[in-house]
Specification:
The protein is 29% helix and 16% strand. By secondary structure, it is α+β, with helices and mostly antiparallel strands. It has 3 domains: 144 residues, no CATH class; 130 residues, no CATH class; 37 residues, no CATH class. Strands 2-8-7-6-9-12 form a 6-stranded antiparallel beta sheet, with no helix packed on it. A 4-stranded mixed beta sheet has the order 1-4-3-5. Helix 5 packs across helix 7. It is globular, with a radius of gyration of 24 Å.
Length: 350
């Protein structure tokens, strides 16, 4: 918190206030619901921390659709004909909430535009859904986090909202003709790219390294060193001997999961191509695949879209280098590195 307060003062970010969260239940996705419910703003645009606008998004407050309804939502990759969350006509969620099946795209809540005064009653429902103690949504795997809670609350009360009618595009990277989509791309009401939600490969400001069991390796090294020095003597290393080996191992950074970038920033470049759904194409043809693109990409990396670009004729591909926001990722990666360095300085200071 102190780091954020210092940044607000130093960088001249205006009148920004910070409010402590005292509800110990407000963790994970519930923190978002808590923040929106308790916001000091009447009208708000909420963005997930890994979601970045490609231009100033304040024009959204002047949209006719927002003025008419007081709520603008964005679609997810998934719809009743293709859903990894099993939200379709036969889902139990409709019976549980006592609302009719809504034949529409699922909601992606990485960005939310809400008039809190106009929709105070709906937000009460959202809060109830998120904080209900039985946690039946999660136990029965009916809803994933908060992502559909907002549209469910609006549907429950028969309240109007505007769902952006352009399905998400996918931003990702191509290696050896293998595409891995790692960012959900959302549009404005005219179909222009507005938000890049980097939710499958988050910025950290430090290089991602392969997991390794350093303690096991330290024990192995200490044991081998002991046997080499005194073959007929003690076979089990002492704790301080293992700790010395562990310290030596941790002093040398492990192998990075991605090849280092030429600009020296730790986070990988993942926005090289944009895959978008062709307009005037039936929703049934909007199919986002989930897959692993090993060996071109790490086995731990979840990919979205289509591995072989051009395989689905209902989508088209653009190079990010040709788009207006081509330099955005470099700036974000630099900011992430600076933030990580500031954090390390704070941790290292006496």
């Amino acid at each position: 918190m102190k780091t954020l307060q210092d940044l607000a003062r130093v960088d001249g970010m205006g009148d920004i206030s910070f409010h402590e969260v005292t509800d110990f239940h407000a963790t994970g996705f519930r923190a978002k619901v808590h923040a929106i419910y308790n916001s000091h703003f009447d009208r708000l645009l909420f963005l997930d921390a890994d979601n970045v606008p490609v231009r100033d998004p304040t024009f959204l407050f002047d949209l006719k659709e927002f003025k008419d309804t007081g709520a603008v939502f964005w679609p997810d990759f998934w719809h009743p004909l293709n859903s990894i969350f099993n939200i379709h006509s036969q889902s139990l969620i409709w019976e549980l909430l006592d609302i009719p099946f809504a034949n529409m795209f699922e909601q992606e809540s990485g960005q939310l535009l809400v008039d809190r005064r106009k929709h105070a009653a709906r937000l009460e429902f959202v809060r109830h859904y998120a904080f209900q103690r039985s946690d039946i949504f999660d136990r029965m795997k009916l809803v994933h986090g908060d992502k559909d809670l907002f549209r469910f609350a609006w549907l429950k009360q028969l309240s109007p909202f505007y769902m952006i009618r352009y399905p998400p595009a996918v931003a990702g990277k191509v290696i050896n003709e293998s595409f891995c989509g790692m960012t959900m791309v959302q549009h404005d009401s005219e179909g222009n790219v507005l938000f890049l939600h980097r939710n499958s490969n988050k910025l950290s400001g430090v290089a991602r390294r392969a997991d390794s069991d350093n303690m096991a390796e330290a024990v192995r090294r200490a044991t081998a060193k002991l046997a080499s020095k005194n073959p007929g003597g003690r076979k089990t290393p002492k704790f301080k001997e293992v700790q010395a080996e562990l310290k030596a191992i941790e002093a040398v950074p492990g192998k990075t999961l991605e090849a280092p970038e030429l600009d020296g920033f730790p986070d990988p470049v993942i926005w090289t191509h944009l895959v978008s759904f062709k307009r005037a194409t039936r929703r049934a043809h909007y199919v986002i695949e989930t897959y692993n693109a090993d060996p071109e990409f790490s086995k731990e990396q979840n990919c979205y879209g289509q591995r072989e670009l051009g395989k689905n004729p209902n989508f088209y591909v653009q190079k990010v280098a040709d788009l207006s926001f081509s330099g955005l990722e470099t700036e974000l990666r630099r900011y992430a590195m600076e933030a990580a360095n500031r954090r390390q300085e704070k941790l290292s200071s006496p």
